Amino acid sequence: MAITYHSTRNSLLQYTASEAILRGISPDGGLFVPSTIPKLSFPLERTAQMTYQELAFLIMKDFLPDFTDNELQDCASVYDTRFDDRKITPLVYKDSIYFLELFHGPTIAFKDMALSILPRLMTTAASKNNVKNEIVILTATSGDTGKAAMVGFADVPQTKIIVFYPKNGVSEIQEKQMLTQQGDNISVVAIDGNFDDAQSKVKEMFADKTIADELEANGMQFSSANSINIGRLIPQIIYYFYAYGQMIQSEAIQSGDLINVTVPTGNFGNMLAAYYAKQMGLPIHKCIVASNENNVLTDFFQTGTYDRNRDFTLTSSPSMDILVSSNLERLLYMLLGEDTQKVKKYMNELSTEGRYQVAKQVMSEATDFYADFATEKEVLEQIKKTYKDTNYIIDPHTAVATVVANKYQDTSGDKIPMLVASTASPYKFPTAVLDAIVPNFKADSLEDSLAELKRNSNIPYPPAIEEALYSPVLHNTVITTEEMPDEVKRILGI
Ligand SMILES: *Cc1c(COP(=O)(O)O)cnc(C)c1O
Which of 282, 314, 414, 442 supports an S-S bond with 277, CB 3.0-4.6 Å? Predict the structure, then answer.
């Protein structure tokens, strides 16, 4: 039976894959999940011979049955020279860890892996469903999604994109990357809250019938570029298989051998993609969930209680400064035996009380996962140590994952090869990285820091850095979280 998509909170709300991509989020506030997770449609060892585009095509084909082969091949063709490495996601072996570099796209963060293809999936889905409305992408960002989504959607016909980011919650480079973005269909707005505030307001707007009607009357409809959209989640499955193929190729493993995967986690999209890969047949032993000091997920996996009532900490890994991890809802749906009523109950508790507690047994059965977190001090020490031992510079997000991967290996003693998702280029976080590797360095400007980082890494600036440094700032709106709906209407002229 061909896969359909339904809400995590109501299995009767069913859609085709293309409808699910267009809508972004289910009308009842739930997230779309596939009716089943397909098994890999080809022998695992073939991952070692395929190009990224070929693999992308085959994986998407299983999840998106209402797209034609031609459409999917066209979508997959975005994995080309817009990535600065021929391998798209190269694998780098340092200090007994396989770092899967996911930051070779146009904005040098892993969000490019999905956001370069999402606009194609979305416009294809629109024409397939005879949608004549303009698609308005509303996006909350903790720093990296915003820029990657804007680059992906810039000047794409029939779309507009509005990005909200926390004014004091992103790195200087991240902010500059967003504020210099060109494109007639683009708006970026700073808010005086944190990422969770932005994300929950955006979700509220998606569920607001009055705004939906107003948009419809003006020939528009909302969609999402956040990882709540399955059109983002599915492309993230590809690189786990691709990495496995590279590990076979380099004879680190033989086809069928187990690997562990550690993912620096915020909204749980990347980790969930790895878990979906496992369900499809990728031999992953443990999915290791790495958090920073905002360690709400560590507590959840260790105790079964999800509690967002705690201090929000600004860390050196801002893309993971999140207390409400959206995609966990999809995992919960699976852990609870696909019981949509239970998911709905817990999600209601989360929105009214900020916490919920699942039965102890549910978590004791979730043995596919291991969760832990890294303190700011551990992150700094890790960047320093990796650099000292191997001359390889990792960004703070990747360092969080490395710390946790090491903790897992120390406590479990297992020697299974470890894959770490390396989610950002160190150039995106020069201040934090320099604190670790050149502690006495005093920068007068961002340019100074970048130059110093270049001197130490011997890696030329990616084009994204030149662009952020030397392009004019084009946006400067700052508002309160409450003003977000009015700002959206103002931007859309409705
Ligand atoms: C978004 C992001 C993460 C977190 O990924 P999720 O899918 O939200 O868990 C980690 N690192 C970087 C650099 C990111 O941009």
Answer: 282
